[in-house]
């Protein structure tokens, strides 16, 4: 720079040579830098995205499995209650339903007879009519299959509805089934 400003012979050639070599070095260096920077960003992002995606999928699978397990437990409880109700009188059925609702934490348990006639009810709601059973519940129970479903209630609330047919034993031949509604804990519903 001092020689170029002093107008020393050959300084212009030296300045041009330094400029050309500088450009020849900077352009490939800049290209390699940008390429490696983009490569690292994409590579690292994809590694973490994959781990986060896998973690979220695992969490969803875990919550589904927890809900399925809870639904099966409630369904087994209602099947056992249905077996018990088959051997009881009408008055004993009312007492058994109320005791089972209190012990199992159900919101309501209803014993239905022919044509969805309510035979016995136990509910933790005061002066509330029992919820009407859905059509698929009636169809499934009439085919002697246990019903269980997770149903949304409002924005962030869920219930587990289960039902089982009461076996027809002895002289009693009227078709009956028991339906229970269990709340899903708020924390589990939110997850």
What does this molecule look like?
The protein has 191 residues and is of the alpha+beta class. The chain has five helices and five strands. A hairpin with a 3-residue loop joins strand 3 and strand 4. 19% of the residues are buried.
Produce the secondary structure layout.
Elements: H1 2-5, H2 11-85, H3 90-104, E1 108-112, E2 118-123, H4 135-142, E3 147-153, E4 157-166, E5 176-183, H5 186-190
Antiparallel strand pairs: 1-2, 1-5, 3-4, 4-5
Give the averaged pLDDT, no decimals: 85
* β-strand number: 5
Unreliable runs: none
Continuous helix count: 5
Percent helix:
55-70%
Tell me the strand percentage band. Answer: 15-25%
Strands side by side in the biggest sheet: 2-1-5-4-3
Shape: rod-shaped
Q: Name the helix and strand elements from N-terminus to C-terminus, one letter apiece.
A: HHHEEHEEEH
Structural class, by secondary structure, is alpha+beta
Main sheet properties:
5 strands, antiparallel
End-to-end separation in angstroms reads 69 Å
Rg, nearest Å: 36 Å
Question: What's this model, at a glance?
Answer:
By secondary structure, this protein is α+β, with helices and mostly antiparallel strands. The protein has five helices and five strands.
Task: Kindly list the characteristics that best describe this protein.
191 residues; alpha+beta; 5 helices
